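Q: I'm writing up a methods section and want to include an example of the input and output format. Could you take the sequence below and give the corresponding predicted structure tokens, formatted cleanly so I can copy it straight into the document?
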Amino acid sequence: MSKKIFQDIITKAVGSVHEEVSVDGNKGRVSNRPRRGVGNKFLVSVSLIVLGAVVVLALFLLFSSSFSRVSLKVTTSRKVFDLNDKITLNKNGMNGDIKYDIMKLEDLESTKVSITGSKRVQRNAIGVVTIYNYGKTVQRLVIGTRVETNDGKIYKIQKAILVPSNKLGTGSVDVAVRAEQAGDNYNIPPSDFILPGLKGGTKFDLIRAKSHKNIIGGFVGEIKTVSPADLQKARQQLREVITQKLTKNAILQVPKGFILYSDSMFLSFTDNVIDNSALVDSTEGQASLTMSGALSSIIIDQNELRNYLVSKTIPDLNKNVKVILLGLEKLDFHVLNKEKVVLGGDQSIKADISGSIRIIWDFDDIMLKDKLVGIKKSNYQDVFRQFSSIEKAEAVFSPSWALYFPNDPQRITIDKGF
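A: Here is the clean output for your methods example:
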């Protein structure tokens, strides 16, 4: 047997793995080519995995955008104006005046005062009646005009008044009255009155009066007295208590849409003092000082005041542009000739008003939300540019990777900063 050299052994060993055999069985040459199909299948698998991941990611982003939330912080144009003006108020808002209404409150307080003596006194009953005018013209009534009950008791009004006409409804005005004579028989419950001075004239049936509360204080007889100093001190204390309570309650009870200034409050007080030194009731060596307080407040229609101030500060403002006024309640407000003001009539009331107000340009937030619904995150600033009053806007998305605004406008919240 012939010997095999080492090179032949190696060659055959390699050929046993990679050699190709011909159809006739003869051995061919060794091939170094890789097996077909293995590389292509791997690339296809990788591509499918990547594509699936992209689809899943796209669906995830789309899903998260549909259920996202967006918080918007919007800053609009704003200016500060220093105001120093005179305004005119009218109960009915006539002739371009600012409309106002009246709020009324009452309180009753009492305290004890030491008795120092006694005296005989006579006191006339006092109260308040409302004069009604059913006619078409204003009715002037002079001080001392009489009103009379059905049983003939006479009371006189304590100041001259103008009773408005009924052009905008029945005109009326409240006025203090005093009994013509002293005595407790003039202390009466709420009653109807005629004006006897108008008898025989066309206005007799058009001008009437009515009291809505008791007329009280009439007295003739011996009473206990207190020292003027003690009385003055007690009176002052009760006025302070009543003023504080009425003012606090007035501020709490201002109707929505109205504004109340401290100088628009009118206070009046009545008590059971007789001849400035005596009190009717007494027990255990002390007299009882009872005081009632009435507060009538001018409350101003906030929209009326707002429109007036806007017309004064921004006269060329487009009527379709919305603005917000801040600081109205902090303005200084002072009624002119306050002692001559009669609330509730046709009389116009003049007042000084001053201070700083901040005007902020507003926008339609519902329209803004509708324009933002479903748009691409990168395009929202283009929407804000459609609103001339908006100076700056920032959007915070939740989740942060959301690509679109929600399709539901209720998932968009807007902070206007005022």
